[in-house]
């Protein structure tokens, strides 16, 4: 064994951070397997790699016994005492059995072990790098796709984008640059396996953190996110500074900040509402762009009954119940929406303590321009078809908050 191995081990320790002692142990273990495979597979042996002179020796380990039944594993007491008079029954004797041509086999084995350990070390480095990026976003390049995944290059590693994490309004083609949210990093024998998403609520949260300086520096805080990827999302924001408008900060000058995020998500509509620890105010805000007359709170069941003007009922519920469903997710409260007429008939509105006039939801500056247009078209279509908001039964929505870490 030449001194080149010693130099290689020293270099790997410095450049890859692989302990030389661990490499030596791995090489010695591999040499034992190589010896058994090529010379005597039943023999109990150990190998000794001497880094000082680059030599490798093989020793057979034999138990000292009175009567020998297997000479490969045992040695008689008489023969053991010829080696060293101090040996007794039950001791272990080591006898050098290094083959003459073992050096060639040892060199090949050492090279294979070093190569394997280098790969493992590189995989470990990549794993440690990406495990720290869980719940974060990265920009990647679409490589290819098959029936199981779309594969996205993240530089040092390739990520897997499952079909269930792909936005329904997006198509992913080779060489496309996309931002992805890292949901999970797993350690496997073939290296780290990285799973990413384009639908996770965390992606929307991280995009706002990147786009809005006030969120990045902590002036404005995102309290909750509700998302139906590719269609519509709601986020609630808060600040304890009276001189800062949290909604306006997220919208940006002429809607530039929120529009940049809408573009990144290929037209997904985004409602930005002001968070409040008062469920009356928060639920009313969350139902934006609908106006709200009153919110009746049931603290025990964490449920609310929301009264809206008759002409706003369809808007409050939303297409296929989407607006109410997202509001329930955003606030964590059950939401039962009733028209003003229905509420008056059942005697729950007005209440003596109810404020006068309508409770305004968030103003139009909180909405993406695309959403404003949709709202206008919705109301125009409703008027044209002669639909009326009054309905006998309105579904109750009960959704938990989306998890955002």
TrEMBL record:
Q: Which InterPro entries match?
A: KH_dom (IPR004087), KH_dom-like_a/b (IPR015946), KH_NusA_2nd (IPR058582), KH_sf_prok-type (IPR009019), NA-bd_OB-fold (IPR012340), NusA_N_sf (IPR036555), S1_domain (IPR003029), TF_NusA (IPR010213)
| S1 motif domain residues | 133-199
Record-linked CDD domains: KH-II_NusA_rpt1, KH-II_NusA_rpt2, S1_NusA
* UniProt main location, coarse: cytoplasm
Q: Name one GO cellular component term.
A: cytosol
Q: Specify one Pfam family.
A: NusA_N
Sequence segments annotated as region (Disordered):
344-405
Q: Where in the cell is it found?
A: Cytoplasm
Keywords per UniProt:
Cytoplasm, RNA-binding, Transcription, Transcription antitermination, Transcription regulation, Transcription termination
Kindly list the biological process annotations in GO that this record carries: DNA-templated transcription termination; transcription antitermination
K Homology domain residues: 229-301, 302-375
Q: Which spans does this entry mark as compositional bias, Basic and acidic residues?
A: 385-397
> Where would one find the signal peptide in this protein?
none
Ranges of Acidic residues composition bias in the record: 355-367
Query: What does the UniProt record say this protein does?
Result: Participates in both transcription termination and antitermination.
PANTHER family attached to this UniProt entry:
TRANSCRIPTION TERMINATION FACTOR NUSA (PTHR22648), TRANSCRIPTION TERMINATION_ANTITERMINATION PROTEIN NUSA (PTHR22648:SF0)
Q: How does it assemble?
A: Monomer. Binds directly to the core enzyme of the DNA-dependent RNA polymerase and to nascent RNA.
Q: Which family does it belong to?
A: Belongs to the NusA family.
Kindly provide the name given to this protein in its UniProt entry.
Transcription termination/antitermination protein NusA
The record's gene field reads: nusA
């Amino acid at each position: 064994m030449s001194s080149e191995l010693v130099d290689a081990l020293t270099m790997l320790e410095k450049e890859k951070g692989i302990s030389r002692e661990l490499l030596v142990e791995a090489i010695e273990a591999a040499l034992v397997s190589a010896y058994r495979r090529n010379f005597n597979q039943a023999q109990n042996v150990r190998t000794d790699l001497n880094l000082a002179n680059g030599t490798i020796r093989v020793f057979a380990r034999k138990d000292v016994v009175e009567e020998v039944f297997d000479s490969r594993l045992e040695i008689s007491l008489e023969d053991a005492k010829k080696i060293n008079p101090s040996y007794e029954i039950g001791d272990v004797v080591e006898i050098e059995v290094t083959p003459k041509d073992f050096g060639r086999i040892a060199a090949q084995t050492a090279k294979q072990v070093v190569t394997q350990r280098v790969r493992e070390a590189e995989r470990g480095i990549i794993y440690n790098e990406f495990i720290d990026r869980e719940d974060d976003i990265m920009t990647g390049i679409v490589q290819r796709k098959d029936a199981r995944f779309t594969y996205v290059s993240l530089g040092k590693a390739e990520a897997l984008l499952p079909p269930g994490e792909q936005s329904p309004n997006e198509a992913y083609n080779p060489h496309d640059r996309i931002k992805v949210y890292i949901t999970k990093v797993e350690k496997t024998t073939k290296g780290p396996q990285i799973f990413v998403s384009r639908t996770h609520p965390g992606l929307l949260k991280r995009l706002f953190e990147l786009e809005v300086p006030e969120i990045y520096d902590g002036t404005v805080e995102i309290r909750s996110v509700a998302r139906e990827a590719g269609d519509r999302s709601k986020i609630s924001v808060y600040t304890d500074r009276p001189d800062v408008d949290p909604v306006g900060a997220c919208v940006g000058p002429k809607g530039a900040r929120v529009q940049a995020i809408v573009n990144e998500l290929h037209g997904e509509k985004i409602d930005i509402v002001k968070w409040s620890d008062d469920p009356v105010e928060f639920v009313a805000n969350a139902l934006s762009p609908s106006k709200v007359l009153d919110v009746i709170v049931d603290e025990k069941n964490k449920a609310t009954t929301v009264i809206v003007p008759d002409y706003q009922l369809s808007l409050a519920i939303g297409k296929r119940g989407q607006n109410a469903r997202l509001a329930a997710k955003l606030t964590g409260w059950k939401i039962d929406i009733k028209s003003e007429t229905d509420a008056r008939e059942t005697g729950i509105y007005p209440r003596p303590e109810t404020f006068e006039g309508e409770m305004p939801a968030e103003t139009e500056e909180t909405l993406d321009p695309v959403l404003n247009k949709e709202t206008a078209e919705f109301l125009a279509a409703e008027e044209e078809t002669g639909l009326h908001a009054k309905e006998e039964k309105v579904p109750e929505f009960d959704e938990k908050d989306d998890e955002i870490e």
